[in-house]
Every structure is written in C-alpha cells, then in structure tokens.
Specification:
Pfam families: Ring_hydroxyl_B (PF00866). Belongs to the bacterial ring-hydroxylating dioxygenase beta subunit family. Keywords: Dioxygenase, Oxidoreductase. It comes from Nocardia nova SH22a. GO terms for molecular function: biphenyl 2,3-dioxygenase activity. This protein is an alpha+beta fold. The chain has a single domain, classed as Roll (Nuclear Transport Factor 2, Chain: A), CATH 3.10.450.50. The protein is built from four helices and six strands. The protein has a six-stranded mixed beta sheet with strand order 2-1-6-5-4-3, with helices on both faces. Strand 4 and strand 5 form a beta hairpin. The chain starts with a helix and ends in a 14-residue tail after the last strand.
Length: about 210
C-alpha cells in the first residue's frame, strides 16, 4: 500500500467520522447509483454470513491478494486533540494484516493451538449505514473509477462458552476493487468505538 493511498484512506476515515457521507463523495456524480449500492450491500451481507457461519476460507476468497487490513487503537483525547486519538501506522494496532497473515490465523483455528477459539465463538455481524462512492484514481493510485470507496458501520455480537458475551461497535472504510469475479476487499480500515477493549481477546474478524 503506497503512502499516498494509505494517507487517502486514513483521511477518508477521519473526515467521514467528522463530516458524514459527503466527505467521501465531495463532487456531484461520484456516489454509486442505486444498483451499484445494492451490489455493495449484498456483498457485505454475504461476507457477514460467511464469518458468522465460520466459513473463513470462503471469506478469504472475498479479499484481494494485496489486501491491507488495519484496525488501529484509539485513545481518549481532548476535543482539540482529536486528530491524535487514532493510532498512526507503526503504532499500536489490534490488526495490521495481509491476506497471507489472515490465512495463517485461520489455519491456526484448526491446529488445536488457538485456545481462545476452541470451542469456537458464535458471532452475529450486522452491517449498516453503507455509503459507496467511485474511487478517484488521483486520490487512490492503482485504483480506477470502477473501484469503490465504501464507508459502513458495524455491530458484532460474540458469545462463547456459557456466559462470555462481547459487543463490538465501530466503522469501516473499504476500498473495493472490481474484478472479473466481482468485488474484492483491497483495503480495510476498522475503527472500534471503544478506546479500551472490553473483551478478553479479539479473535473475531470485522
């Protein structure tokens, strides 16, 4: 992921959080039309179903080979310091993954060594507030106007064993690449609304 593309994705996350959907679609005509928006939503619903069903290998097929998957930590800051509340690249992160490293995590589930997920968790992924815009190649080098910048909100419920329950809420900013096989997640930045993780672990994908 180039520094310029990385900066563009992070800027979209920060601006979207402050200014709403218009931050991702600044010019008229850039927002995806109704049919394309429906396609994006169906893509996310399929992804959620695969994760909830534990079909992680099938989920990997929805990810681009050059995937960048990043979930930075957050800290409490004064209002005037909000630009510093999200960890930068190279600082603390819950996830900073490639497709290969996610595949390794998934293989580990079946190794008998992933005690945090054996027995496995039961999850329910809810995705909402989807805003899809055509990517600007000047802003996102290596992408075309057929690709999409998509912001969404999520709520993930997790139950494990008898009484362990966790709820994760947050937002995602994705770069979805158009391929011959459909949409694929090429970049994903995930921001939890919690600044301190309330769960014992974070073995769930978002």
């Amino acid at each position: 992921m180039s520094a310029r593309t990385e900066h563009a994705v992070e800027t979209a996350v920060d601006a979207g959080a402050e200014n709403g959907s218009a931050a991702l679609c600044p010019a008229a005509g850039e927002r995806a039309d109704r049919d394309l928006h429906f396609e994006v939503e169906q893509f996310y619903y399929l992804e959620a179903e695969l994760l909830d069903d534990g079909r992680f290998t099938d989920w990997l097929d929805l990810l681009a080979d050059d995937l960048d998957y990043w979930m930075p930590t957050r800290t409490n800051r004064l209002r005037r310091q909000q630009a510093l509340s999200i960890a930068a690249r190279g600082e603390a992160a819950y996830y900073e993954e490639t497709k290969d490293s996610l595949a390794w995590r998934i293989r580990r589930f079946d190794s008998g060594m992933a005690w945090a997920e054996d027995p496995p968790s039961r999850t329910r992924h809810l995705v909402t507030n989807v805003v899809a815009c055509h990517a600007d190649p000047d802003e996102y080098p290596g992408f075309t106007t057929d690709d999409l910048v998509v912001r969404s909100a999520f709520l993930v419920y997790r139950n494990r064993l008898e009484r362990e329950e966790n709820v994760f809420a947050g937002g995602r900013t994705d770069l979805l690449r158009r391929t011959g096989d459909g949409l694929r997640v090429a970049r994903r930045t995930i921001l939890l609304d919690q600044n301190i993780l309330q769960a014992k672990n974070i073995s769930t994908f978002f």
